[in-house]
Design goal:
Layout (H helix, E strand, L loop, with lengths): L8 H15 L8 H15 L4 H9 L4 H12 L10 H13 L6 E5 L6 H14 L5 E7 L2 H9 L1 E3 L8 H7 E3 L7 E4 L1 H4 L2 E5 L12 E6 L8 H12 L2 E9 L13 E4 L2 E3 L3
Parallel strand pairs: 1-2, 1-7, 2-6, 7-8
Antiparallel strand pairs: 3-5, 4-5, 8-10, 9-10
Helix pairs in contact: 5-6
């Protein structure tokens, strides 16, 4: 097995500052091994002898694409279908029934990663409203790599963790021949989704307004100041009466006073 160069404390601190500056992510000291494992391959590919040399390569702009590659490698996180299922039950039992008939239901998945959250939402909406009804989902992430996976909507069959078998049969097409062992989300669902690279740590683009915003399992990487700024930006994109949903290990207590608690991890913007 190829061994990556070691990283010293000063070099690691440089990357901590850089990823915080770019994405607002506070990379804990305990993540040094993860950083070496993920970025070490780039040193090999670029024939660089040290992490200090790679840092200079990125910040000096030797290759404009390498900065994005570094961000992709350091921000990719695990996800799976129907993760934290209670949120999808809330969507099914509360949000959808109270939504005005005939109006499009618009949802933003703010840190959509490889797309499992987007397509879980799509399956719930298709199940409750129909695949031909008016609803839309925006999936955004800072990583172009994971957005590419999400946009394709193709996964290996061993990635079906959490996905009910009836949904696998109803909304997924099994791959054949060269694609055997994989499945792709049905086009009738994929047509409701759009994808955009968005850095939540900067001014947000014009993306419209949403009835529900999911921002789950990403704020654990932000310090409180970054959390406040990110949530404030995103709340500007929430329609009055809309819901803001965070991960089960996260809370907006002390982070935002505009949103009102419905239940732990679920907040609402007053009308």
């Amino acid at each position: 097995m190829l061994e990556h160069p070691s990283i010293n404390d000063a070099e690691f601190a440089q990357f901590q500052r850089l990823i915080y500056q770019i994405a607002g992510i506070s990379l804990a000291d305990s993540k040094k091994v993860l950083l070496v494992g993920r970025l070490g391959k780039r040193l090999t590919a670029l024939n660089l002898a040290s992490f200090g040399a790679y840092y200079k390569y990125v910040v000096n702009g030797n290759d404009p694409h390498e900065r994005q590659t570094m961000v992709d490698l350091l921000t990719t996180n695990e996800t799976y279908f129907f993760r934290e299922e209670a949120h999808f039950d809330f969507l099914r039992q509360v949000v959808i029934p109270q939504h005005p008939a005939g109006q499009s239901l618009d949802i933003w998945s703010g840190a959509s990663s490889t797309g499992e959250e987007i397509y879980t939402l799509s399956m719930v909406l298709a199940d409750e409203l129909g695949a031909d009804a008016q609803w839309s989902i925006l999936g955004s992430d800072i990583s172009t790599h994971v957005l590419g996976i999400a946009q394709r909507g193709q996964y290996w069959l061993d990635r079906t963790r959490g996905l009910p078998k009836e949904y696998l049969r109803k909304y997924c097409l099994k791959g054949v021949r060269a694609q055997e062992g994989s499945f792709i989300i049905d086009p009738s669902l994929r047509r409701h989704a759009r994808f955009m690279q968005i850095n939540l740590n900067t001014t947000l683009p014009e993306i419209g307004k949403f009835h529900v915003i999911f921002l789950r399992n990403v704020m654990i990487y932000f310090d409180n100041d970054t959390k406040r700024k990110v949530v404030a930006r995103m709340v500007e994109k929430l329609r009055p009466g809309g819901y803001f949903i965070v991960g089960h290990s996260e809370s907006l207590n002390g982070i935002n006073e505009t949103l009102k608690t419905v239940k732990p991890t679920i907040y609402r913007l007053p009308n």
